[in-house]
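Priority: medium. Attachment 1 of 2:
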């Protein structure tokens, strides 16, 4: 009798799970995210796993973090996956998003000409590295696009006591990480990159990682549901299903499994 009841309960649970999945089948959510998550190849690897499991398609709008947050403010996305913690917290505090959760991290790297004309390799930390580049007047390409990477770069310049705008050695690409790296490669310039995009970048020419490893270069990513109370058309249930998945054990396994040349590019954050 007990065995029969247990079998019935298991069957009922499976049926409910199937019904819940079927309820989302054919749905599409819009995910506004950073160029680094797309250009690194991460989304091409993990999203098909989620879509197969959930029946929910994910349309990615890849922008810098600042622009992705603007998309969220307008209600033109259901979920955000971005990497500028201060801006993310402000977005939630202002009521545009709910339930920010940690997802993963990697790090920023300083790349530049292999000859290292600014002597960055001898830097005591990342702030010193930025100061050396400014003192030498070595060419620098900034994303200049209000992305999480751009925000991190500006914090380093500020801490180093440098105002780079208007300097002859400082150029702004106004573009994503890939185009910025292309511009730096063509100019033999330094730039700040996320490790994921750098690992997948092919047109390196004479560029190499010149400085890395400072804890200040830590680069965490968070996921946020756009507030359905502010934008009622937001697909709350499907968006939450994606958030639950990417922060679950299964999502963490998928993130960890993505590698380029045996190098793991993103590391899950467990709350």
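Attachment 2 of 2:
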């Amino acid at each position: 009798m007990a065995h029969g009841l247990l079998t019935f309960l298991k069957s009922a649970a499976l049926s409910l799970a199937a019904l819940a999945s079927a309820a989302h089948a054919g749905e599409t959510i819009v995910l506004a995210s950073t160029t680094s998550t797309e250009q690194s190849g991460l989304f091409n690897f993990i999203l098909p796993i989620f879509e197969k499991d959930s029946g929910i398609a994910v349309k990615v709008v890849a922008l810098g973090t600042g622009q992705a947050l603007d998309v969220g403010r307008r209600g033109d996305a259901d979920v955000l996956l971005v990497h500028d913690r201060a801006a993310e917290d402000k977005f939630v505090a202002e009521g545009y998003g709910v339930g920010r959760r940690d997802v993963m991290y990697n790090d920023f790297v300083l790349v530049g000409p292999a000859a290292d004309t600014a002597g960055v390799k001898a830097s005591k930390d990342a702030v010193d590295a930025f100061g050396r580049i400014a003192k030498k007047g070595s060419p620098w390409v900034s994303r200049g696009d209000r992305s999480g990477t751009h925000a991190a770069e500006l914090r380093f310049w500020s801490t180093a006591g440098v105002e780079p705008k208007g300097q002859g050695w400082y150029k702004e690409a106004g573009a994503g990480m890939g185009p910025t790296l292309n511009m730096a490669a063509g100019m033999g310039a330094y730039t700040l990159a996320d490790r994921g995009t750098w690992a997948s970048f092919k047109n390196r020419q004479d560029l190499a990682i010149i400085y890395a490893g400072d804890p200040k270069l830590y680069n965490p990513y968070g996921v946020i549901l756009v507030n359905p109370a502010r934008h009622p058309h937001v697909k709350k249930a499907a968006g939450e299903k994606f958030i639950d998945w990417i922060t679950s054990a299964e999502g963490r396994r998928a993130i960890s499994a993505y590698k380029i040349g045996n190098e793991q590019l993103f590391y899950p954050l467990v709350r």
